[in-house]
Amino acid sequence: MLVCVTLLNACTGKPNLEVDSPDNTVQLTFQNGEQGLTYQLDWNNKSLVDASQISILPNIPVKIIDTEIKTENSNWKPVWGQFSDIKDHYNELVIRLEINGKSGKLYARVYNDGVGFRFERDNISSEDTLDFFAEYNLPSKDMFYAPAGENPPIGPLSIGTLTTSEEKLPKLALPIVVEKSNKMWLSFLESDLYSAKGFNTMKLHFNKETGKLTSSSKPKASAGKLVTPWKVILFGYQAGDLVTSTVTVNLAAPCEIENPDWIKPGKTLWDWRVHGYTAPDGFVYGINTESYKRFIDFAEEKGIEYFLIDDSWYKHATKGHFELSPELDLQAVIDYAADKTVELILYYDRKHGEYGDKELFPYYQSLGMKGVKYGFMGNNVQFSRDAISQSADSELLIDFHDSPVPFTGVRRTFPNAITREYCHAQQDSRKAFTPETFIKMALINAIQGPLDMNNGNFDLSGINAGKRQKGPKKLNSYLSTVVSETARTLVIFSGLVCIPDAPEAYAAKSDLFEFIQKMPVGKWDESRILNSKMSEYITTARRSGTDWFVGSVICQKGGTLDISLDFLEEGKIYEATFYEDTDTTDCKTNPEAYQARKAEVKKDQIIKAKLASGGGHCMYITLKE
Protein backbone atom coordinates (compact mmCIF):
# COMPACT_ATOMS: atom_id res chain seq x y z
CA MET A 1 0.00 0.00 0.00
CA LEU A 2 1.41 3.41 -1.00
CA VAL A 3 -0.19 6.71 0.09
CA CYS A 4 1.11 10.11 -1.18
CA VAL A 5 0.33 13.56 0.25
CA THR A 6 1.86 16.83 -0.99
CA LEU A 7 2.44 19.09 2.00
CA LEU A 8 2.95 22.79 2.64
CA ASN A 9 3.01 24.38 6.07
CA ALA A 10 -0.54 25.68 6.56
CA CYS A 11 0.52 28.92 8.29
CA THR A 12 3.56 30.01 6.31
CA GLY A 13 3.21 28.35 2.94
CA LYS A 14 6.67 26.84 3.43
CA PRO A 15 7.36 23.19 2.61
CA ASN A 16 7.04 20.67 5.43
CA LEU A 17 10.53 19.41 6.34
CA GLU A 18 9.61 16.88 9.02
CA VAL A 19 8.77 13.19 8.82
CA ASP A 20 8.12 10.62 11.56
CA SER A 21 8.35 6.84 11.63
CA PRO A 22 5.15 4.76 11.35
CA ASP A 23 5.14 4.21 15.14
CA ASN A 24 5.81 7.96 15.74
CA THR A 25 8.92 7.29 17.86
CA VAL A 26 11.40 8.57 15.25
CA GLN A 27 11.55 12.20 14.14
CA LEU A 28 13.63 13.32 11.15
CA THR A 29 13.79 17.09 10.71
CA PHE A 30 15.46 19.16 7.96
CA GLN A 31 16.53 22.79 7.94
CA ASN A 32 17.48 24.78 4.83
CA GLY A 33 20.07 27.51 5.33
CA GLU A 34 22.78 29.44 3.52
CA GLN A 35 25.09 26.42 3.48
CA GLY A 36 22.40 24.03 2.26
CA LEU A 37 20.34 21.32 3.93
CA THR A 38 20.91 19.89 7.40
CA TYR A 39 19.05 17.05 9.11
CA GLN A 40 18.53 15.99 12.73
CA LEU A 41 17.47 12.53 13.90
CA ASP A 42 15.67 11.87 17.20
CA TRP A 43 14.29 8.66 18.69
CA ASN A 44 11.97 8.50 21.69
CA ASN A 45 12.61 12.20 22.25
CA LYS A 46 16.37 11.64 22.50
CA SER A 47 18.88 12.86 19.95
CA LEU A 48 20.58 10.20 17.84
CA VAL A 49 22.33 12.54 15.38
CA ASP A 50 22.50 16.28 15.99
CA ALA A 51 22.16 18.83 13.15
CA SER A 52 24.31 17.57 10.24
CA GLN A 53 24.81 18.60 6.63
CA ILE A 54 23.51 16.41 3.80
CA SER A 55 23.99 17.33 0.16
CA ILE A 56 24.76 16.31 -3.39
CA LEU A 57 26.91 19.45 -3.76
CA PRO A 58 28.45 20.31 -0.36
CA ASN A 59 28.07 23.84 0.99
CA ILE A 60 25.84 24.89 -1.93
CA PRO A 61 22.48 26.55 -1.13
CA VAL A 62 19.38 24.75 -2.37
CA LYS A 63 15.96 26.00 -3.35
CA ILE A 64 13.10 23.81 -2.13
CA ILE A 65 10.25 23.66 -4.65
CA ASP A 66 7.85 21.45 -2.71
CA THR A 67 7.65 18.38 -0.48
CA GLU A 68 5.59 15.23 -0.44
CA ILE A 69 4.96 12.56 2.20
CA LYS A 70 4.56 8.96 1.11
CA THR A 71 3.56 6.01 3.27
CA GLU A 72 4.26 2.38 2.39
CA ASN A 73 3.01 -0.65 4.31
CA SER A 74 3.49 -3.94 2.50
CA ASN A 75 5.15 -7.34 2.81
CA TRP A 76 7.46 -9.27 0.52
CA LYS A 77 9.12 -12.68 0.59
CA PRO A 78 12.88 -12.97 0.04
CA VAL A 79 14.36 -15.92 -1.85
CA TRP A 80 16.34 -16.67 1.32
CA GLY A 81 17.36 -14.78 4.41
CA GLN A 82 16.98 -14.24 8.16
CA PHE A 83 13.20 -13.91 7.74
CA SER A 84 10.76 -15.65 5.41
CA ASP A 85 8.43 -12.64 5.31
CA ILE A 86 9.58 -9.00 5.50
CA LYS A 87 7.43 -5.99 6.31
CA ASP A 88 8.29 -2.84 4.36
CA HIS A 89 6.66 -0.11 6.45
CA TYR A 90 7.91 3.47 6.28
CA ASN A 91 7.04 7.13 5.88
CA GLU A 92 9.01 8.97 3.22
CA LEU A 93 9.61 12.67 2.78
CA VAL A 94 10.37 13.58 -0.84
CA ILE A 95 11.95 17.03 -1.18
CA ARG A 96 11.91 18.42 -4.71
CA LEU A 97 14.71 20.94 -4.96
CA GLU A 98 16.88 22.98 -7.25
CA ILE A 99 20.69 23.15 -6.97
CA ASN A 100 22.75 25.39 -9.23
CA GLY A 101 19.79 25.69 -11.55
CA LYS A 102 19.25 21.95 -11.92
CA SER A 103 16.34 20.01 -10.47
CA GLY A 104 16.51 16.98 -8.26
CA LYS A 105 14.92 15.11 -5.37
CA LEU A 106 16.03 14.03 -1.91
CA TYR A 107 14.26 10.95 -0.58
CA ALA A 108 14.25 10.56 3.23
CA ARG A 109 12.70 7.25 4.20
CA VAL A 110 11.95 6.65 7.89
CA TYR A 111 11.39 3.21 9.42
CA ASN A 112 10.82 2.36 13.07
CA ASP A 113 14.47 1.27 13.38
CA GLY A 114 16.33 3.14 10.66
CA VAL A 115 16.40 5.86 8.02
CA GLY A 116 17.67 6.08 4.46
CA PHE A 117 18.67 9.07 2.30
CA ARG A 118 18.93 9.07 -1.50
CA PHE A 119 19.34 11.81 -4.11
CA GLU A 120 18.09 11.81 -7.68
CA ARG A 121 19.23 14.57 -10.03
CA ASP A 122 18.29 15.22 -13.63
CA ASN A 123 20.32 16.54 -16.55
CA ILE A 124 23.76 15.62 -15.21
CA SER A 125 26.64 16.55 -17.47
CA SER A 126 30.16 15.16 -17.47
CA GLU A 127 31.40 18.54 -16.16
CA ASP A 128 29.37 18.35 -12.93
CA THR A 129 31.44 17.60 -9.83
CA LEU A 130 29.05 15.81 -7.50
CA ASP A 131 29.47 14.37 -4.03
CA PHE A 132 26.71 12.69 -2.05
CA PHE A 133 27.96 14.01 1.28
CA ALA A 134 26.63 13.53 4.81
CA GLU A 135 27.82 14.47 8.27
CA TYR A 136 27.07 12.53 11.46
CA ASN A 137 27.20 15.01 14.33
CA LEU A 138 27.67 13.04 17.57
CA PRO A 139 28.47 14.02 21.17
CA SER A 140 32.11 13.72 22.26
CA LYS A 141 31.38 10.83 24.65
CA ASP A 142 29.90 8.57 21.95
CA MET A 143 32.10 5.55 21.16
CA PHE A 144 32.49 4.06 17.69
CA TYR A 145 33.74 0.86 16.07
CA ALA A 146 34.57 -0.10 12.49
CA PRO A 147 35.81 -3.15 10.52
CA ALA A 148 39.52 -3.38 9.72
CA GLY A 149 39.78 -6.21 7.20
CA GLU A 150 41.66 -9.14 8.73
CA ASN A 151 42.85 -7.03 11.65
CA PRO A 152 40.91 -6.63 14.89
CA PRO A 153 38.02 -4.20 14.39
CA ILE A 154 38.70 -0.59 15.32
CA GLY A 155 37.30 0.61 18.63
CA PRO A 156 36.05 1.54 21.03
CA LEU A 157 37.22 5.08 20.21
CA SER A 158 35.47 8.16 21.57
CA ILE A 159 34.62 11.09 19.33
CA GLY A 160 36.28 13.39 21.85
CA THR A 161 39.52 11.40 21.90
CA LEU A 162 39.76 11.48 18.12
CA THR A 163 39.26 15.22 18.07
CA THR A 164 42.23 15.86 20.37
CA SER A 165 44.51 12.98 19.33
CA GLU A 166 47.73 13.83 17.52
CA GLU A 167 48.02 10.31 16.11
CA LYS A 168 47.08 9.46 12.54
CA LEU A 169 43.46 8.47 12.38
CA PRO A 170 42.65 4.91 11.29
CA LYS A 171 41.18 4.25 7.87
CA LEU A 172 37.46 3.70 8.29
CA ALA A 173 35.31 1.11 6.52
CA LEU A 174 31.61 0.26 6.49
CA PRO A 175 29.73 -0.20 8.67
CA ILE A 176 30.48 2.29 11.44
CA VAL A 177 28.88 1.20 14.74
CA VAL A 178 28.29 3.73 17.51
CA GLU A 179 27.55 3.13 21.18
CA LYS A 180 25.98 6.36 22.34
CA SER A 181 26.51 7.78 25.79
CA ASN A 182 22.76 7.23 26.40
CA LYS A 183 23.38 3.51 25.65
CA MET A 184 21.52 3.43 22.35
CA TRP A 185 23.30 1.96 19.32
CA LEU A 186 23.71 3.30 15.78
CA SER A 187 25.23 2.10 12.53
CA PHE A 188 26.16 4.17 9.47
CA LEU A 189 26.36 2.31 6.16
CA GLU A 190 24.81 2.26 2.67
CA SER A 191 22.41 0.13 0.67
CA ASP A 192 21.58 -0.51 -2.99
CA LEU A 193 25.01 0.47 -4.29
CA TYR A 194 24.32 -2.06 -7.05
CA SER A 195 21.63 0.22 -8.55
CA ALA A 196 23.74 3.39 -8.28
CA LYS A 197 25.70 3.17 -11.51
CA GLY A 198 29.03 4.98 -11.47
CA PHE A 199 29.38 5.10 -7.69
CA ASN A 200 32.07 3.41 -5.60
CA THR A 201 31.62 2.34 -1.97
CA MET A 202 31.07 5.39 0.19
CA LYS A 203 34.17 6.64 1.99
CA LEU A 204 34.14 7.50 5.68
CA HIS A 205 36.28 10.13 7.35
CA PHE A 206 36.60 11.79 10.74
CA ASN A 207 36.99 15.56 10.54
CA LYS A 208 39.12 16.68 13.49
CA GLU A 209 38.27 20.34 12.99
CA THR A 210 34.51 19.83 13.23
CA GLY A 211 34.57 16.69 15.38
CA LYS A 212 32.16 14.98 12.96
CA LEU A 213 32.16 11.68 11.13
CA THR A 214 31.46 12.20 7.43
CA SER A 215 30.62 10.04 4.43
CA SER A 216 31.35 10.84 0.80
CA SER A 217 30.04 9.10 -2.33
CA LYS A 218 31.45 10.51 -5.57
CA PRO A 219 30.23 9.21 -8.93
CA LYS A 220 32.40 8.99 -12.01
CA ALA A 221 31.69 11.52 -14.75
CA SER A 222 28.37 10.68 -16.37
CA ALA A 223 25.48 12.27 -18.19
CA GLY A 224 21.72 12.05 -17.83
CA LYS A 225 19.95 11.12 -14.61
CA LEU A 226 21.87 10.45 -11.39
CA VAL A 227 20.65 8.01 -8.71
CA THR A 228 22.77 7.68 -5.57
CA PRO A 229 23.01 4.72 -3.20
CA TRP A 230 21.03 4.98 0.03
CA LYS A 231 22.93 6.35 2.99
CA VAL A 232 21.55 4.40 5.95
CA ILE A 233 21.38 4.97 9.69
CA LEU A 234 20.22 2.01 11.79
CA PHE A 235 19.45 2.21 15.50
CA GLY A 236 18.54 -0.09 18.38
CA TYR A 237 18.66 -0.61 22.13
CA GLN A 238 21.44 -3.19 21.91
CA ALA A 239 24.19 -3.83 19.38
CA GLY A 240 22.51 -7.03 18.21
CA ASP A 241 19.39 -5.16 17.08
CA LEU A 242 21.38 -3.74 14.16
CA VAL A 243 22.34 -7.20 12.86
CA THR A 244 18.76 -8.39 12.29
CA SER A 245 17.38 -5.09 10.94
CA THR A 246 15.59 -5.42 7.58
CA VAL A 247 16.02 -1.75 6.62
CA THR A 248 18.97 -2.31 4.25
CA VAL A 249 17.22 -5.08 2.28
CA ASN A 250 13.99 -3.07 2.16
CA LEU A 251 15.95 -0.18 0.62
CA ALA A 252 17.56 -2.44 -2.00
CA ALA A 253 16.03 -2.91 -5.44
CA PRO A 254 13.67 -5.90 -5.87
CA CYS A 255 14.90 -9.17 -7.31
CA GLU A 256 16.04 -8.87 -10.92
CA ILE A 257 16.22 -12.63 -11.53
CA GLU A 258 13.02 -13.65 -13.30
CA ASN A 259 12.92 -17.18 -11.87
CA PRO A 260 15.24 -17.63 -8.85
CA ASP A 261 14.09 -21.18 -8.05
CA TRP A 262 17.59 -22.50 -8.83
CA ILE A 263 19.08 -20.49 -5.94
CA LYS A 264 19.45 -22.83 -2.98
CA PRO A 265 21.16 -21.69 0.24
CA GLY A 266 22.83 -24.37 2.30
CA LYS A 267 25.94 -25.76 3.95
CA THR A 268 29.15 -26.68 2.19
CA LEU A 269 32.18 -28.77 3.06
CA TRP A 270 35.47 -27.13 2.05
CA ASP A 271 38.85 -28.64 1.25
CA TRP A 272 41.34 -25.78 1.78
CA ARG A 273 41.94 -26.08 5.55
CA VAL A 274 41.96 -29.88 5.49
CA HIS A 275 45.07 -30.31 3.32
CA GLY A 276 47.64 -32.35 5.24
CA TYR A 277 45.12 -33.80 7.70
CA THR A 278 45.74 -37.50 8.43
CA ALA A 279 42.55 -39.51 8.89
CA PRO A 280 42.35 -42.32 11.47
CA ASP A 281 42.82 -44.88 8.65
CA GLY A 282 46.08 -43.18 7.59
CA PHE A 283 44.71 -41.36 4.53
CA VAL A 284 46.25 -37.89 4.04
CA TYR A 285 44.04 -35.23 2.47
CA GLY A 286 45.31 -33.13 -0.42
CA ILE A 287 44.39 -31.69 -3.81
CA ASN A 288 43.47 -34.96 -5.47
CA THR A 289 40.57 -37.02 -6.73
CA GLU A 290 40.37 -39.41 -3.78
CA SER A 291 40.26 -36.62 -1.20
CA TYR A 292 37.40 -34.93 -3.00
CA LYS A 293 35.46 -38.18 -3.24
CA ARG A 294 35.73 -38.53 0.54
CA PHE A 295 34.26 -35.07 1.03
CA ILE A 296 31.42 -35.89 -1.35
CA ASP A 297 30.68 -39.20 0.42
CA PHE A 298 30.42 -37.46 3.81
CA ALA A 299 28.29 -34.65 2.40
CA GLU A 300 25.93 -37.25 0.90
CA GLU A 301 25.73 -39.17 4.19
CA LYS A 302 25.02 -36.06 6.31
CA GLY A 303 22.78 -34.17 3.91
CA ILE A 304 25.29 -31.37 3.28
CA GLU A 305 24.20 -29.62 0.10
CA TYR A 306 27.55 -28.52 -1.36
CA PHE A 307 31.26 -29.26 -1.59
CA LEU A 308 33.54 -26.29 -2.28
CA ILE A 309 36.84 -26.95 -4.11
CA ASP A 310 39.17 -24.07 -3.31
CA ASP A 311 42.44 -22.71 -4.70
CA SER A 312 45.15 -24.73 -6.52
CA TRP A 313 42.85 -27.16 -8.27
CA TYR A 314 44.47 -25.65 -11.37
CA LYS A 315 48.10 -24.62 -11.84
CA HIS A 316 47.64 -22.10 -14.62
CA ALA A 317 44.88 -20.49 -16.67
CA THR A 318 44.97 -19.06 -20.15
CA LYS A 319 42.16 -17.82 -22.37
CA GLY A 320 39.64 -20.65 -22.43
CA HIS A 321 41.86 -23.26 -20.74
CA PHE A 322 42.72 -24.50 -17.23
CA GLU A 323 45.85 -26.57 -16.56
CA LEU A 324 44.75 -28.92 -13.76
CA SER A 325 46.83 -29.96 -10.77
CA PRO A 326 48.49 -33.29 -11.61
CA GLU A 327 46.72 -35.52 -9.06
CA LEU A 328 43.24 -34.22 -9.78
CA ASP A 329 40.81 -35.67 -12.32
CA LEU A 330 38.19 -32.94 -12.15
CA GLN A 331 35.81 -34.66 -14.54
CA ALA A 332 35.90 -37.81 -12.40
CA VAL A 333 34.99 -35.71 -9.35
CA ILE A 334 32.18 -34.02 -11.27
CA ASP A 335 30.82 -37.39 -12.40
CA TYR A 336 31.10 -38.77 -8.85
CA ALA A 337 29.14 -35.87 -7.37
CA ALA A 338 26.52 -36.17 -10.13
CA ASP A 339 25.71 -39.67 -8.87
CA LYS A 340 25.08 -38.24 -5.39
CA THR A 341 22.88 -35.43 -4.05
CA VAL A 342 25.90 -33.13 -3.63
CA GLU A 343 26.46 -30.01 -5.74
CA LEU A 344 29.90 -28.51 -6.46
CA ILE A 345 31.27 -24.97 -6.06
CA LEU A 346 34.60 -24.10 -7.69
CA TYR A 347 37.13 -21.40 -6.83
CA TYR A 348 38.64 -18.92 -9.30
CA ASP A 349 41.14 -16.04 -9.17
CA ARG A 350 43.78 -14.48 -11.41
CA LYS A 351 47.01 -15.29 -9.63
CA HIS A 352 47.47 -18.42 -11.78
CA GLY A 353 46.64 -16.65 -15.03
CA GLU A 354 43.45 -15.43 -16.62
CA TYR A 355 40.75 -17.59 -18.20
CA GLY A 356 38.54 -14.66 -19.19
CA ASP A 357 35.77 -13.05 -17.15
CA LYS A 358 32.86 -13.23 -19.57
CA GLU A 359 33.77 -16.78 -20.60
CA LEU A 360 34.27 -18.04 -17.04
CA PHE A 361 30.68 -18.29 -15.87
CA PRO A 362 29.25 -20.14 -18.91
CA TYR A 363 32.22 -22.52 -18.69
CA TYR A 364 31.58 -23.23 -14.98
CA GLN A 365 27.93 -23.81 -15.83
CA SER A 366 28.91 -26.24 -18.60
CA LEU A 367 30.93 -28.21 -16.02
CA GLY A 368 27.82 -28.62 -13.91
CA MET A 369 29.00 -26.26 -11.16
CA LYS A 370 26.38 -24.65 -8.93
CA GLY A 371 28.56 -21.81 -7.74
CA VAL A 372 31.84 -19.94 -7.92
CA LYS A 373 34.06 -18.64 -5.15
CA TYR A 374 35.62 -15.55 -6.72
CA GLY A 375 38.94 -14.28 -5.40
CA PHE A 376 41.35 -11.37 -5.41
CA MET A 377 39.57 -8.44 -6.99
CA GLY A 378 38.90 -6.63 -3.69
CA ASN A 379 36.79 -3.48 -3.55
CA ASN A 380 36.28 -3.13 -7.31
CA VAL A 381 32.65 -2.10 -7.61
CA GLN A 382 32.07 -2.38 -11.35
CA PHE A 383 33.90 -5.70 -11.63
CA SER A 384 31.89 -7.09 -8.71
CA ARG A 385 28.61 -5.75 -10.12
CA ASP A 386 29.35 -7.47 -13.44
CA ALA A 387 30.36 -10.71 -11.72
CA ILE A 388 27.10 -10.84 -9.79
CA SER A 389 24.90 -10.34 -12.86
CA GLN A 390 27.01 -12.55 -15.16
CA SER A 391 27.06 -15.41 -12.65
CA ALA A 392 23.28 -15.07 -12.34
CA ASP A 393 22.96 -15.35 -16.14
CA SER A 394 24.74 -18.71 -15.86
CA GLU A 395 22.66 -19.75 -12.81
CA LEU A 396 25.66 -19.76 -10.46
CA LEU A 397 25.88 -18.80 -6.81
CA ILE A 398 28.76 -16.41 -6.11
CA ASP A 399 30.88 -16.16 -2.95
CA PHE A 400 33.36 -13.25 -2.92
CA HIS A 401 36.80 -13.72 -1.36
CA ASP A 402 39.37 -11.13 -0.15
CA SER A 403 37.75 -8.05 1.50
CA PRO A 404 35.14 -7.52 -1.21
CA VAL A 405 32.63 -4.75 -1.91
CA PRO A 406 30.02 -4.83 0.89
CA PHE A 407 27.07 -4.40 -1.54
CA THR A 408 24.68 -4.32 1.41
CA GLY A 409 21.18 -5.40 0.39
CA VAL A 410 22.25 -6.98 -2.90
CA ARG A 411 20.95 -10.37 -1.75
CA ARG A 412 17.46 -9.02 -2.45
CA THR A 413 18.30 -7.78 -5.95
CA PHE A 414 20.52 -10.74 -6.90
CA PRO A 415 19.99 -13.53 -4.35
CA ASN A 416 22.69 -15.59 -6.08
CA ALA A 417 25.16 -13.28 -4.22
CA ILE A 418 25.09 -15.86 -1.49
CA THR A 419 27.91 -14.69 0.85
CA ARG A 420 31.26 -12.86 1.06
CA GLU A 421 34.46 -12.80 3.13
CA TYR A 422 33.96 -9.30 4.50
CA CYS A 423 35.64 -10.39 7.73
CA HIS A 424 38.57 -12.27 9.21
CA ALA A 425 37.92 -15.81 7.96
CA GLN A 426 38.91 -18.70 10.20
CA GLN A 427 42.68 -19.32 10.38
CA ASP A 428 43.62 -16.57 7.91
CA SER A 429 46.79 -14.76 9.08
CA ARG A 430 45.83 -15.34 12.73
CA LYS A 431 46.54 -11.78 13.83
CA ALA A 432 42.94 -11.03 14.67
CA PHE A 433 40.98 -14.14 15.48
CA THR A 434 40.23 -14.36 19.21
CA PRO A 435 36.86 -14.95 20.88
CA GLU A 436 36.64 -11.20 21.47
CA THR A 437 37.34 -10.39 17.82
CA PHE A 438 34.76 -12.93 16.67
CA ILE A 439 32.09 -11.27 18.81
CA LYS A 440 33.07 -7.83 17.50
CA MET A 441 32.80 -9.03 13.89
CA ALA A 442 29.44 -10.68 14.63
CA LEU A 443 28.19 -7.28 15.84
CA ILE A 444 29.98 -5.02 13.32
CA ASN A 445 30.93 -6.70 10.02
CA ALA A 446 27.74 -8.79 9.96
CA ILE A 447 25.51 -5.70 9.78
CA GLN A 448 26.47 -5.29 6.09
CA GLY A 449 25.06 -8.71 5.22
CA PRO A 450 25.98 -12.41 5.00
CA LEU A 451 29.55 -13.42 5.92
CA ASP A 452 31.68 -16.35 4.78
CA MET A 453 33.69 -16.76 7.98
CA ASN A 454 34.41 -20.53 7.82
CA ASN A 455 33.35 -21.36 11.37
CA GLY A 456 32.92 -24.89 12.67
CA ASN A 457 36.32 -26.50 13.23
CA PHE A 458 36.16 -29.61 15.46
CA ASP A 459 39.77 -30.86 15.45
CA LEU A 460 41.00 -27.84 17.40
CA SER A 461 43.85 -29.71 19.09
CA GLY A 462 45.18 -30.98 15.76
CA ILE A 463 44.91 -27.55 14.14
CA ASN A 464 46.70 -25.88 17.06
CA ALA A 465 49.45 -28.52 16.90
CA GLY A 466 50.18 -27.60 13.27
CA LYS A 467 48.89 -30.82 11.69
CA ARG A 468 47.52 -29.01 8.63
CA GLN A 469 49.25 -27.46 5.64
CA LYS A 470 46.98 -24.40 5.88
CA GLY A 471 46.63 -24.09 9.66
CA PRO A 472 47.53 -21.16 11.91
CA LYS A 473 50.98 -19.68 11.32
CA LYS A 474 51.49 -19.57 15.09
CA LEU A 475 50.92 -22.82 16.98
CA ASN A 476 48.31 -22.91 19.75
CA SER A 477 46.90 -19.56 18.63
CA TYR A 478 43.39 -20.82 17.75
CA LEU A 479 41.31 -19.93 20.83
CA SER A 480 37.87 -21.53 20.75
CA THR A 481 35.94 -24.57 21.92
CA VAL A 482 34.06 -27.08 19.81
CA VAL A 483 30.72 -25.87 21.20
CA SER A 484 31.68 -22.28 20.43
CA GLU A 485 32.63 -23.35 16.89
CA THR A 486 29.22 -25.00 16.53
CA ALA A 487 27.39 -21.93 17.83
CA ARG A 488 29.32 -19.65 15.46
CA THR A 489 27.84 -21.41 12.42
CA LEU A 490 24.43 -20.15 13.60
CA VAL A 491 25.46 -16.75 14.98
CA ILE A 492 27.02 -15.64 11.68
CA PHE A 493 24.27 -15.30 9.09
CA SER A 494 25.08 -16.54 5.59
CA GLY A 495 23.37 -18.11 2.61
CA LEU A 496 26.28 -20.53 2.39
CA VAL A 497 27.68 -21.83 5.68
CA CYS A 498 31.16 -23.08 4.87
CA ILE A 499 32.33 -25.68 7.41
CA PRO A 500 36.11 -26.13 7.12
CA ASP A 501 37.12 -29.33 8.90
CA ALA A 502 37.72 -32.91 7.79
CA PRO A 503 34.83 -35.36 7.51
CA GLU A 504 36.51 -37.61 10.09
CA ALA A 505 36.71 -34.73 12.59
CA TYR A 506 32.97 -34.26 12.34
CA ALA A 507 32.24 -37.99 12.43
CA ALA A 508 34.20 -38.29 15.69
CA LYS A 509 31.76 -35.83 17.33
CA SER A 510 28.65 -36.83 15.42
CA ASP A 511 26.23 -35.93 18.23
CA LEU A 512 27.55 -32.36 18.31
CA PHE A 513 27.65 -32.18 14.51
CA GLU A 514 23.90 -32.90 14.47
CA PHE A 515 23.24 -29.27 15.45
CA ILE A 516 24.97 -28.06 12.27
CA GLN A 517 23.49 -30.88 10.23
CA LYS A 518 19.92 -29.96 11.17
CA MET A 519 20.26 -26.20 10.55
CA PRO A 520 18.17 -25.10 7.52
CA VAL A 521 20.78 -22.57 6.40
CA GLY A 522 19.40 -19.38 4.86
CA LYS A 523 15.82 -20.62 5.06
CA TRP A 524 14.90 -18.97 8.38
CA ASP A 525 11.40 -17.81 9.26
CA GLU A 526 12.61 -15.53 12.06
CA SER A 527 15.89 -14.38 13.61
CA ARG A 528 16.59 -12.62 16.91
CA ILE A 529 19.63 -11.50 18.87
CA LEU A 530 18.72 -12.31 22.47
CA ASN A 531 21.90 -11.11 24.21
CA SER A 532 24.72 -8.94 22.95
CA LYS A 533 27.57 -6.98 24.44
CA MET A 534 30.43 -5.75 22.27
CA SER A 535 33.58 -7.90 22.68
CA GLU A 536 31.95 -10.00 25.41
CA TYR A 537 29.04 -12.18 24.26
CA ILE A 538 26.26 -12.77 21.76
CA THR A 539 23.21 -15.07 21.71
CA THR A 540 21.35 -15.64 18.44
CA ALA A 541 18.04 -17.49 18.00
CA ARG A 542 16.65 -18.53 14.62
CA ARG A 543 13.33 -20.24 13.87
CA SER A 544 12.40 -22.67 11.11
CA GLY A 545 8.75 -23.72 11.35
CA THR A 546 8.25 -24.60 15.01
CA ASP A 547 11.92 -25.49 15.57
CA TRP A 548 14.35 -23.05 17.20
CA PHE A 549 18.13 -23.03 17.01
CA VAL A 550 19.93 -20.97 19.66
CA GLY A 551 23.68 -20.32 19.78
CA SER A 552 25.80 -18.33 22.23
CA VAL A 553 29.48 -17.36 22.20
CA ILE A 554 31.45 -15.68 24.99
CA CYS A 555 34.85 -14.03 25.47
CA GLN A 556 37.84 -15.51 27.30
CA LYS A 557 36.43 -14.48 30.68
CA GLY A 558 33.70 -17.11 30.30
CA GLY A 559 30.55 -16.81 32.41
CA THR A 560 26.83 -17.52 32.62
CA LEU A 561 24.24 -16.04 30.26
CA ASP A 562 20.53 -15.86 31.04
CA ILE A 563 18.64 -16.98 27.93
CA SER A 564 14.91 -16.31 28.07
CA LEU A 565 12.69 -18.67 26.09
CA ASP A 566 9.97 -16.02 25.78
CA PHE A 567 9.88 -16.67 22.02
CA LEU A 568 8.23 -20.11 22.47
CA GLU A 569 4.47 -20.62 22.16
CA GLU A 570 2.35 -20.37 25.29
CA GLY A 571 1.05 -23.68 26.66
CA LYS A 572 3.26 -25.88 24.45
CA ILE A 573 5.91 -28.31 25.67
CA TYR A 574 9.20 -28.47 23.80
CA GLU A 575 12.19 -30.78 23.90
CA ALA A 576 15.56 -29.05 23.94
CA THR A 577 18.86 -30.70 23.10
CA PHE A 578 21.65 -28.82 24.87
CA TYR A 579 25.21 -28.79 23.55
CA GLU A 580 27.45 -27.40 26.26
CA ASP A 581 30.97 -26.80 27.45
CA THR A 582 31.89 -28.93 30.47
CA ASP A 583 33.40 -27.88 33.79
CA THR A 584 36.85 -28.68 32.37
CA THR A 585 36.45 -27.04 28.96
CA ASP A 586 38.86 -24.20 28.20
CA CYS A 587 39.66 -22.51 24.89
CA LYS A 588 43.41 -22.80 25.56
CA THR A 589 43.89 -26.02 27.52
CA ASN A 590 40.89 -28.27 26.79
CA PRO A 591 38.96 -26.97 23.75
CA GLU A 592 37.30 -30.22 22.64
CA ALA A 593 35.47 -31.18 25.84
CA TYR A 594 31.67 -30.96 25.49
CA GLN A 595 28.45 -32.62 26.60
CA ALA A 596 25.01 -33.14 25.09
CA ARG A 597 21.77 -33.64 27.02
CA LYS A 598 18.01 -33.32 26.57
CA ALA A 599 15.32 -31.69 28.71
CA GLU A 600 11.76 -30.38 28.43
CA VAL A 601 11.39 -26.60 28.20
CA LYS A 602 8.52 -24.11 27.90
CA LYS A 603 7.79 -20.45 27.21
CA ASP A 604 9.40 -17.83 29.47
CA GLN A 605 11.75 -20.34 31.07
CA ILE A 606 15.19 -18.85 31.80
CA ILE A 607 18.13 -21.03 30.77
CA LYS A 608 21.27 -20.43 32.82
CA ALA A 609 23.84 -21.14 30.10
CA LYS A 610 27.31 -21.70 31.53
CA LEU A 611 30.08 -21.02 29.02
CA ALA A 612 33.77 -21.82 29.45
CA SER A 613 36.59 -19.42 28.65
CA GLY A 614 36.15 -18.63 24.94
CA GLY A 615 33.30 -21.11 24.95
CA GLY A 616 29.83 -21.60 23.56
CA HIS A 617 26.35 -22.96 24.17
CA CYS A 618 23.78 -24.36 21.72
CA MET A 619 20.16 -25.41 21.94
CA TYR A 620 18.01 -27.22 19.39
CA ILE A 621 14.40 -26.80 20.52
CA THR A 622 11.60 -28.78 18.90
CA LEU A 623 7.89 -29.02 19.68
CA LYS A 624 6.92 -32.27 21.41
CA GLU A 625 4.27 -34.37 19.71
Automatic annotation (TrEMBL):
Keyword vocabulary terms for this entry: Calcium, Glycosidase, Hydrolase
UniProt key word Calcium: yes
Residue stretches making up the Glycosyl-hydrolase 97 C-terminal oligomerisation domain: 523-621
Gene Ontology MF, one: hydrolase activity
Pfam families noted in UniProt: GH97_C, GH97_N, Glyco_hydro_97
Origin: domain of life: Bacteria
Protein name as catalogued: Glycoside hydrolase family 97 catalytic domain-containing protein
